[in-house]
Structures are given as C-alpha cells and as structure tokens.
Amino acid sequence: MPEENITEKADSEWWKTIFDEVYLTTDARSVLDEVITGQEVDFIEKALGLHKDWPILDLCGGQGRHSLELARRGFRDLTVLDYSRPLLLHGKKQAKREGLDVMFMQNDARNMCLTGQCFKIIIMIAGSFGYFSEDSENEELLHEVFRLLIPNGSFLLDLPDKKHVLNNFVPRSSHKANADIVVYRERSLRKNRVYTLEKVQSVSKGVIREAVYSIRLYSPEEIMAMLKSAGFGSIEINRTPFLHNGNNKEEDRGLMEKRMVVIAHKHP
C-alpha cells in the first residue's frame, strides 16, 4: 500500500480502541511473556533501587504485567493507570486470581486527575510514549508525570531506539500469533513517525482487525530536551538494556526490538 494511503488512514486517537483482547493475542509474544516481563522488572528494580514500600505508578501499564510481577516480589503500593478498559479488567482478574494487591485506574495520561506529588516512582514501559499526534500532547504527559512525582522521585521511560529503527527499518512483516491468527504489518516513515497498517487474519473467521496506528520517534537529544523543559534533572540514557527479539534472531519485532531507557529525576 502506498505511503500516503497508510498515513491518510491514520486515526489520531487510535490508542483509544486498539488495546483490547485482540491486542493480547497479536502481541502475546511480548506482553504475555513472563520471562521478558521478569527481565524488565529485574532491570527496573536495579536501575531505580526500589524499596518495597515506595508508591509506584505503572503509567500506560495495560494489564499491569510489571506491577503484578512487582507485587509477587513483595512491593506493596502499586497503581496501574491506562486508558484501555479491556486491559485493566484483564489485569484486575489476574490480580484477584493470585491474591495480589494492585490498584487499577482508567484515565488519560495527559490529565490523570490525581493529587500532585503522590508517587516516588513512575514507570512507563514497552514503548507507550509518542502515541499522541502532536509533540505538545506528548510534552503535556511529561509535565503531568513531573507533577505527580514527589521531590527526589524518579521517572523511568522506555522508548523505541530511534537510531536502530531508522537504520534497520522493516517495511513489511508478519508473524503467527497462534494456530488461528496471523498478523501482517506494513510500515512507512514520515516526519519522525512510524505509521503501521496492521491486518489481523483469522483462519476460521477471516479479517478480525485492520487498523492504522502511528508512533513518534525521539532521539536522545529530543527526549532529554523535553524532560528538561518539564522540570526534570539528572537525566540518564541507556540504549542497550532491552534487546527484545526473543529466541528467533531473524524474527521482526518492529519498534520493540531494541529500546532506549531514560531515567529522569525530580529534584527538590
């Protein structure tokens, strides 16, 4: 499909509807992989020096896979905030099954309607930043994160590695999600955004989803400037912690393959 057709089909609010039970099937190799989640939480614990009683916000946390894992490890003050009701309900059911104490909340990350300075740690994992169509909206999210952190609080932001994406751009890919589902993706680059046309094909039911979504890519310099503008200081960037290509080195993982983790602090 020509690039202009993909971008013309893009809905600026695609993130409001795409994260549902179908997503948990198409992206199960990432978001339902317990080994990957455990490795990510290992990194988060070490990088932030987490204490068990610190209040932690898992922002855009979906079904709360990181918070659920933290709860299994004895962390006691965990909140998951996401816009997707299906994912939040999935997480609530899992927490109930395991007897884990995690709070799940639905809201827009740009205005979370929470009291300021209420979290010691805010994490945003698995490339959930850059979904909004305007840079000003993504900046608004960072200002909201800063407002919610207590003094000396920290923000861990996990982003696609822009340089890696540009140098290893894959315009087309497919993978088998399960015995019935095949996911086809066609991508185009335009003005620092990756547009993806996703077609989800069921052997038994036919096409069950066709949607276009887009993600803004940020360089280290761009994201550092945005964080500083929001008030953050002591910003660290690690471009190697998450190599997300599983056991099959030839399998395309899209924007999740290699990521850039940024840690920013709110000074008193």
List the helices and strands and how they pair.
Blueprint: H1 3-9, H2 21-26, H3 28-31, H4 34-48, E1 56-59, H5 65-72, E2 78-82, H6 85-98, E3 103-106, E4 119-124, H7 135-148, E5 149-160, H8 162-167, E6 172-176, E7 181-190, E8 193-202, E9 206-216, H9 220-230, E10 233-238, E11 259-265
Parallel strand pairs: 1-2, 1-4, 2-3, 4-5
Antiparallel strand pairs: 5-11, 6-7, 7-8, 8-9, 10-11
Using the alpha-carbon principal axes, give the shape: globular
Whole-number total of structural domains: 1
Number of helical stretches of at least 4 residues: 9
Radius of gyration in whole Å, from Cα? 18 Å
CATH-defined superfamily: Vaccinia Virus protein VP39
One letter per element, helices H and strands E, the order comes to: HHHHEHEHEEHEHEEEEHEE
Strand content: 25-35%
Order of strands in the sheet with most strands = 3-2-1-4-5-11-10
Largest sheet: 7 strands, mixed
CATH architecture group name: 3-Layer(aba) Sandwich
How far apart the termini lie comes to 51 Å
Low-confidence spans: 245-250
CATH class: Alpha Beta
Structural class: alpha/beta
Mean pLDDT: 91
**What level of helicity do the residues show?**
25-40%
| CATH fold-level name | Rossmann fold
Strands, count = 11
